[in-house]
Amino acid sequence: MTEALGVYVHWPYCARICPYCDFNVFRDRGRRAEQVVLKDAILADLKAQAQLTGDRDLVSIFLGGGTPSLMDPDWAGEIIATARKLWRAAPDLEVSLEANPTDAEADRFTAFAAAGVNRLSLGVQALDDEALKFLGRDHDAASARRAAEVAARAFPRLSIDLIYARPDQTAQAWATELRQAMDWGAEHISPYQLTIEAGTAFDRAVQRGRLIPPSEDLAADLFETTQDVLEAAGFHGYEVSNHARGEAARSRHNLVYWRGEDYVGVGPGAHGRLTLKGERHATLAASRPGDYSSRVAETGTGLISDQTLTPVEAAEERLLLGLRIEAGVTFGEVAALGLGPDHAEVRDLVDLGLLVADPQRLRASPAGRLVLNALTERLALAI
Ligand SMILES: C[S@@+](CC[C@H](N)C(=O)[O-])C[C@H]1O[C@@H](n2cnc3c(N)ncnc32)[C@H](O)[C@@H]1O
Ligand code: SF4
Q: What is the pLDDT of residue 1?
């Protein structure tokens, strides 16, 4: 058994750009030649980065975006087969693909399954047509439902993304949407609170007073509704925005991030984290598809930065990510920050019920995860 490794592949094209989204995305203008060049660059980058990592147990491949379900399924097959050859594929290797729930994409799900995808992450976002219009989506609730049905048949594992804390959303209506979504055959649900990201169309609308996001109190109520409704149905919240029906349904890929394991990032704008000779490296690839492909042609990899994190920076990252999951982070991993079970701030936060009393691990309680930002700020100030 060597160290676990995840592979993140960023496919940056989308049919249209949603007004809330600040991911590294570009309109898909159907330029197949440009996309073939990008796919080949991704394959070359995988090979180059495998030289850095050496032999590892490949536990997850995540084709994210953007909208990788717009990619030719044969290309997904090439990427998956290449990664499987470069590293030692774990017997239970998770291969996820993000998809938008349009009928056209659902028609290709079987081909993606044949290409080696075994887990689909479907961006349903809302089950209400008005809300889908507000979110600028190019599908309605009926097509999302059809796509979920096709996906549940085509893939062994299905996850559904939803966005809540939309303007004027009530806790009651949200609970109804969650209950409906749970009937669609998913083993995993990721309900994300709508975030107004700088530079997006929603951000401009908020600044002009045309969009008023819910108050913090209402957003907190909706978060609690989410936890209550999903927990009651057996979807356990193992992370702030991730709920799974049983341990095996947890996203192995997300666990790679939250546990501080290594992952290779390929594709435009992809981030990676690699532990090389005991040092933690943060890698970043060129953002624009053309720049990424040129970079690979010139240097062999698409990376534009490979920064070695100091032990304190690495521990700070472990703290931020580890507190998001139920299992938390070991005190050993955050030793560079001077945090231990007897640290005064840790003891205070345990007394307040925001951290769990655990001599081995720093773990947020459910109440702590509700106010995670405030909790991490308090810890950061105490370091
Ligand atoms: C980058 S998208 C890729 C998935 C796919 N393209 C889609 O839109 O369905 C991954 C997920 O991030 C979430 N997301 C993106 N921007 C968000 C925002 N501003 N607030 C909350 N969730 C967001 C959505 O739920 C989305 O499904
Ligand atoms: S939410 Fe998905 S489809 Fe919309 S712009 Fe972002 S990545 Fe593309």
A: 55
Cα 369 to middle of ligand 1, angstroms = 21
Cβ pair 95, 61 in contact under 8 A: yes
Q: Which residues line ligand 1 (CB under 6 A)?
A: 20-21, 23, 65, 67, 98, 100, 123, 125, 161, 163, 192, 194-195, 197
194 CB less than 6 Å from ligand 2? no
State the number of CA atoms in the 13 A half-sphere of 77 facing the CB. Answer: 11
Say how many Å lie between the CA of residue 247 and the centre of ligand 2. Answer: 28
Chunk the chain into consecutive blocks of 10 residues (it has 383) and report each block's average pLDDT, rounded to whole numbers: 90 97 96 97 98 96 97 98 98 98 95 98 97 97 97 98 95 96 96 97 97 92 96 95 97 96 98 96 98 98 98 95 94 93 94 95 92 91 86
From the CA of 21, give the closest atom in ligand 2.
6
**AA letter at 207:** Q
**Residues 71, 208: Cα–Cα separation, whole Å:** 37
- Nearest by Cα to 6 from 323, 270, 252, 279: 252
In this structure, are residues 217 and 187 in contact, taking their beta carbons and an 8 Å threshold?
no
Using CA atoms, how far residue 313 sits from 266, 281, 336, 340, 341, in Å, is 23, 11, 9, 17, 20
**Contact between residue 156 and residue 185 where contact means Cβ atoms under 8 Å apart:** no
Q: What is the pLDDT of residue 282?
A: 98
Q: In the prediction, which pLDDT does 132 show?
A: 98
